[in-house]
């Protein structure tokens, strides 16, 4: 067995364990994925083999140092102030990095972790509060009525729509979006999704920083965040390449710099705004369009799943189209904050999108269904 130990305060579904063998044996009754993962974690290997989700390319296997995964766990605990004894819920598949990291955080930091099946509404049969939980956007949307049971919620694995973000605003739960990938050992940055003012405030509002490093402003005795950009976790620095894409330097998480295909706008040494994927940019008649920004605006009036894409056009080079999941219906796109270039030239409806195993839309494969 490896040198990785079980924190003495660690609990899994209310049970404590003296040895890794006890934990591994018990985990078989929880899920096969957890059982096989824990066998790998406590093996003599210094690395863990993790499969990427395949949402932005072909799924592949990545070897990650276990030391880096522990470092990531400690950074998350420090950033969110999640100490020993934190009550946490894991409702993500432990076959992928996000679910694995929930378990490693608990093992490393001494959390009391409950593991449940990765269903659409994991809180449906839960009746006790949790300090921390991570979900994908679909789960968060399906759990809105029950999210009051979670103090701090991390949402990752997909873009948070405008409608979901508006639904989170009235909740007592502190909700955050995560930025990261398998190669960076889960998230390297997070941004607040609710309880903030979206426009920058001037110095007269006595701007300062909260315990999580977010800019906050005191107004009439009430502290609110002045803006919400992605905020880096400790010991991480960023830059941009000549494409404007994010380059991540995280020596405690990766031996090499991670060069991404994510176009960003950097606002400070530790804050950035995500604009979209470089490989998704649509050049329509010489105008560069970011699908992710357009989709955020469209989500204000489209309830079902959808995405926009560029397809070949003799006049424009690429024309913007909208693909909606479901039966054909009238869509009223008037009143949206979109330029004439950002309005879809054609709208298509498909009965069902093609997905990855983690329920992310495979855009190119779905687009091939239109041919």
Give a quick rundown of the structure.
This protein is α/β, with parallel strands linked by helices. 19% of the residues lie in helices and 31% in strands.
Fold and architecture overview:
- Mean pLDDT is 88; it is low at 198-209 and 211-226.
- The strands form five sheets. This protein has a twelve-stranded mixed beta sheet with strand order 1-5-4-6-7-8-9-13-17-16-15-14.
- The chain folds into two domains: 11-193 and 228-276, ANL, N-terminal domain (Rossmann fold, 3-Layer(aba) Sandwich); 281-370, GMP Synthetase, Chain A, domain 3.
- The chain is globular, with a radius of gyration of 21 Å.
- The protein starts with 10 loop residues before the first strand and ends with a helix.
- It has eight helices and 22 strands.
- With 371 residues, the protein is of the alpha/beta class.
């Amino acid at each position: 067995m490896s040198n990785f130990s079980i924190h003495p305060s660690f609990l899994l579904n209310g049970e404590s364990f003296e040895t890794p063998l006890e934990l591994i044996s018990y985990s078989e009754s929880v899920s096969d994925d957890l059982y096989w993962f824990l066998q790998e974690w406590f093996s003599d290997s210094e690395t863990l083999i993790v499969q990427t989700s395949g949402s932005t390319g072909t799924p592949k296997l990545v070897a990650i140092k276990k030391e880096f995964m522990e470092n990531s766990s400690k950074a998350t605990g420090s950033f969110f102030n999640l100490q020993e004894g934190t009550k946490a819920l894991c409702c993500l598949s432990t076959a992928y990095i996000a679910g694995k990291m929930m378990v490693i955080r608990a093992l490393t930091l001494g959390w009391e972790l409950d593991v449940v099946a990765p269903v659409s509404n994991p809180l449906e049969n839960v009746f006790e509060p949790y300090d921390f939980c991570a979900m994908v956007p679909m789960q968060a949307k399906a759990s809105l009525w029950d999210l009051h049971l979670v103090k701090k919620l991390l949402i990752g694995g997909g873009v948070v729509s405008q409608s979901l973000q508006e639904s989170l605003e009235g909740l007592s739960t502190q909700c955050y979006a995560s930025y990261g990938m398998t190669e960076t050992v889960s998230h390297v940055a997070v941004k607040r999704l609710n309880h903030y003012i979206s426009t920058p405030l001037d110095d007269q509002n006595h701007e300062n920083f909260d315990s999580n490093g977010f800019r906050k402003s005191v107004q009439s005795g009430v502290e609110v965040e002045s803006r919400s950009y992605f905020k880096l976790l400790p010991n991480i620095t960023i830059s941009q390449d000549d494409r404007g894409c994010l380059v991540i330097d995280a020596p405690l998480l990766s031996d090499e710099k991670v060069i991404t295909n994510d176009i960003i706008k950097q606002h400070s040494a530790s804050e950035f705004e995500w604009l979209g994927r470089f490989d998704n940019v649509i050049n329509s008649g010489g105008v560069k369009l970011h699908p992710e920004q357009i989709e955020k605006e469209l989500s204000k009036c489209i309830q079902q799943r959808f995405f926009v894409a560029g397809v070949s056009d003799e006049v424009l080079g690429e024309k913007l189209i909208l693909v909606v999941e479901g039966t054909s219906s009238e869509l009223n796109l008037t009143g949206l904050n979109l330029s004439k270039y950002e309005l879809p030239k054609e709208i298509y409806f498909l009965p069902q999108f093609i997905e990855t195993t983690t329920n992310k839309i495979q855009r190119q494969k779905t687009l091939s269904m239109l041919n």
